[in-house]
Amino acid sequence: MEFFSKNKVYNFMDKSKFFIVVSLVLILTSYGLLATKGLSYGIDFAGGTLVQVKYDQQAPIDKVREQISSDKLFANALITEFGSPDEIVIRFATTTEGVSHDVGDKVRELLKGTGNFDIRKVDMVGPKVGSELREKGLMSTLMCILAILVYIAFRFEWRFAVASILALVHDVSITLGAIILFNIEISLDVLAAMLTLIGYSINDTIIIFDRIREDIRASKQVNLFDTINHAVSQTLSRTTLTSLTVLFVVLTLFLFGGEIIHGFSFTLLFGVFIGTYSSIFIAAPLLKWLGFDIAEYKNKEALKEKNKIEKAKMRAMYEKGTV
Amino acid sequence: MMKASLLKFHATIFQRKSMSSGRLNYRLVIFFIAIIFGVGMSMPTFLQTEKGAKVSLGLDLQGGLHMLLGVKTEDAIQSKIKSIASSIKFFAQRGDIIIDDLRIAEEKITLTLLDKDEEKKLDAMLKEINGLHVNKEALSYTLTLDEKEKVLIKEYAISQAVETIRNRLDQFGLAEPNVAKQGEDKILVELPGIKTAEDEQRARELIAKAAHLQLMAVDEKKQDRANSMSPSEAAQYGDVIMNDAKSDAIRYVLKEIPVLDGSMLSDAKVGFSDMQQPVINFTLNSEGAKIFGDFTANNIGNRLAIVLDNKVYSAPNIRERIGGGSGQISGGFSVKEAHDVAIALRSGALLAPVTLLEKRSIGPSLGADSIQASLIALISGFSLVVGFMLFYYRMAGVIANIALVVNLFLLIAIMALFGATLTLPGMAGIVLIIGIAVDANVIICERIRELLRAGVGVKQAIEKGYDNAMSAIVDSNLTSLITAIILYVYGTGPVKGFAVSLSIGILVSMLTAILGTHGIYQFIMPYIEKSKNMMFWFGMKRSH
């Protein structure tokens, strides 16, 4: 089975302006959403309490709402169905410091008489821990991007590194926009999905860059336009297939993984998709926009090679004792 | 540098493999060892055997209680001040040093010495107390703790709280409690054994119980005014007002500085009173017994209050000197309560109260649901990927799938070996790894197809395909690994579990997908070379 025609070279570069405009619009829309609607932080980052309750029949949401709001502590509680009509989630900003008696116990007391229920989960994150987790989350995202930047600059060239980071920022921004649009709460899981995305969506970009590097070494061609077209076309089946296998598993996670990891699987699903798009249509053209020049690169590589040979010579001479 | 060495590395493999390409080769041998190791070491987990290293389920999958506690370290300083005051009082009484106005105000002790001749004796005693800063104006003393001592007390309060809570939970009889210090000033408590709300409540009460036992003298001169006196008025006399444990209506005026406290306790056990009520019998250590004996001898006719966590449980009259240093706490406990209080007293008091910073409590039914959901995702994701690889690459797909299965066994085996915990995000990580692990084989297969299309002979296409694919595979896997490691370092709880399965999975996939499949190809090379059916071997139209 083969999806892509064997030796056809697609002209991606010709349409690169179009895709970059599309991406810019998407990115700007995402930041627009960020500015207007904003991220909704889950309790992991904002602090607060989440109680998941399962009834043995349809949950009496109105009755629960009435009971819960009878206590001033839970005035702004949000009560929503969770996955099935039997199950609800109660969220509120209140947290308590007492170990032996906490807000979860209070909710249990208030819910008495609303039917047969089982409290399946109580998550309470105090404000101090919430802000710490937020700090750590931001820190880890930045660390990831920085580490990748350094690695790629080391393995390729700085323009490759900058192009892949721009592609990453592109992926993260648009995914963030989708998260806001679809009302996904930012939780620890979603953050983990984001970081995984950063690590994964770079893979396709690397495959393409690797091919560009190889093509530059192998041929006398110095036209970047053609080299990129050739490399992206040659790797097209690889890029789509590797993404496809991951999309398969992420899709099953999204469909069957359950309500709890819904945010996680949504983020990955959308992110892998957008990451593949940016690898094919955005990352490589960015090289040209950043002023990458094949002749210059070849010269640099040749110089490096020369230096290495020089060094080896010097070493040999040193070892022989002639220096 | 790295580029060069990597290339050299490839070159050496390349040379060795052209020499060794026969039927059996070192790659296959390593792969076989990996299979045996993976299957063998993952069996205890799959079969849930009694013995052997297993992957344990995280709290989010098996249900349980996870708490992050803070420690109110300022209170530890306060109680240290109190106990210093107690020992000064005791010392003064023993040595007939007359001290007037011994008071505690915030973090200070003030006292006045009446007889100047005794100044030396008192000074010598105060000098023995670590980290005490003495400020004297004539015979008026102001005692404070220096900053270094305060830091030490705070640190000790935290490590003592960890020890104490661990002791309590160990004695409580739950399976595998985990209590550990986290960061500088937090305590992580994980209780996988909790199954019901009642158990959880009891465990939390046990953890939070200060278990601060004090034996305090009733201020007999002021006791009749107990119900009208305000706390601030009591403080003026050096007294405190405390409620009875059974009824808030009964109040006691007690001397602020206790006769002795729970730190001098050597044992506490549940017993039964004459009325068959559960009580707690405690024994004091020798120092405590001495103080207790002296005090009872000097205070016959007065009352001594037995105070636990600032509630008066009883205040019996002292009829005679009590030697031996044993006493009893009674006060309408249930048997369970008495059992828990005794545990708390035996494990020692918390020097400082703990507060709840974060709590995650998961019911066992939710955990079971999560396991089921992620297993369904795992199986369907796995079938999709395996099916696709078969359909798209035929025999090459079979080989990639073998590597994938071995990859999963190895992943579980290594996780078991490290004693890693499987969390829900960790399960998601394993599902994700299925998708990521075949990537390397997709890249290799595509490279091989490319070479075959270019007219290269099949043996060379395979060898060169691996060679060409290597740098892209290494680079992309390493970047994924970098993020997984950062995720591990900065992540907490279940997310750490995700990072663990992701990073082990990435490393293992490099072994199985690169080395393992290559070994298989080399093993069956003669068959591939003989056959001209590239549709069968690589799922592509081309007769060679």
Would you mind describing this structure in some detail?
The complex is a heterodimer of chains A (323) and B (544). Chain A has 323 residues and is α+β, with helices and mostly antiparallel strands. Chain A folds into 2 domains: 13-39 and 130-292, Up-down Bundle (Multidrug efflux transporter AcrB transmembrane fold), CATH 1.20.1640.10; 48-125, Alpha-Beta Plaits (2-Layer Sandwich), CATH 3.30.70.3400. Chain A has helices spanning 16-36, 43-46, 61-69, 103-111, 127-155, 158-181, 188-218, 224-256, 262-289, 294-320; strands at 48-55, 78-82, 84-92, 117-125. In chain A, α6 (158-181) packs antiparallel against α7 (188-218) and α7 packs parallel to α9 (262-289). Chain A is elongated. By secondary structure, chain B is of the alpha+beta class. Chain B folds into 2 domains: 2-62 and 363-538, Multidrug efflux transporter AcrB transmembrane fold (Up-down Bundle), CATH 1.20.1640; 192-348, Gyrase A, domain 2. Chain B has 16 helices and 19 strands. In chain B, the strands form 5 sheets. A 6-stranded mixed sheet of chain B has the order 11-10-16-15-9-12. Chain B has a 4-stranded antiparallel sheet with strand order 7-8-2-18. Chain B has a 4-stranded antiparallel sheet with strand order 3-4-6-5. In chain B, β3 and β4 form a beta hairpin. The interface between A and B is large, with 81 and 86 residues.
Alpha-carbon distance between the two ends of chain B:
40 Å
- Per CATH, the class of the largest domain in chain A reads Mainly Alpha
Biggest chain-to-chain interface with counts: A-B, 81 and 86 residues
CATH topology of the largest domain in chain B: Multidrug efflux transporter AcrB transmembrane fold
Cα gyration radius of chain B (Å): 36 Å
Instruction: Classify the secondary structure makeup of chain A into a structural class.
Output: alpha+beta
Number of strands of chain B: 19
Poorly predicted segments of chain B: 11-21
User: Approximately what portion of the residues of chain A adopt beta-strand conformation?
Assistant: 5-15%
